[in-house]
Design a protein that fits this description.
There is one protein chain. By secondary structure, this protein is mainly β. It has one domain: Homing Intron 3 (I-Ppo) Encoded Endonuclease, Chain A (Alpha-Beta Complex). It is built from 1 helix and 9 strands, in the order E-E-E-E-E-E-E-H-E-E. The strands form 3 sheets. Strands 1-2-3-4 form a 4-stranded antiparallel sheet, covered by helices on one side. Strand 1 (about 10) and strand 2 form a beta hairpin. It is globular, with a radius of gyration of 13 Å.
């Protein structure tokens, strides 16, 4: 298996009771995987409830970027290299200056 293809899990910096993977998956800290839903714009989203009862609905690509990518001074949007909005894998994401995600 290529090192780039190995799935790595990391605690989300803001939502500390959840982990995000380099493959774009999301789970509770206890290991329970949360299934994504597809938005009307074909972006994968995760919905969960924090231990404090706060509802969380975040795009998969944003969770991956927040967890694994350093913030960029000039760019605030995330694009998809393969133009597939359902592919939130870290190796498929890049910083963009455009709101156009693909």
């Amino acid at each position: 298996m290529d090192q780039e293809d190995k799935e790595i899990w990391k605690t989300h910096p803001k939502y500390r009771t959840f982990e995000v993977s380099t493959h774009g998956r999301f789970r509770k800290i206890d290991g329970k995987i949360i299934s994504p839903i597809k938005s009307k714009t074909d972006i994968l989203q995760y919905r969960a409830t924090t231990p404090q009862g706060k509802k969380l609905c975040k795009a998969a690509h944003m969770l991956v970027a927040e967890t694994f990518m350093e913030p960029h001074e000039k760019f605030k949007y995330i694009g998809f290299l393969d133009n597939d909005r359902t592919n939130a894998a870290l190796k498929n994401l890049f910083w963009s200056s455009s709101t156009k995600l693909t």
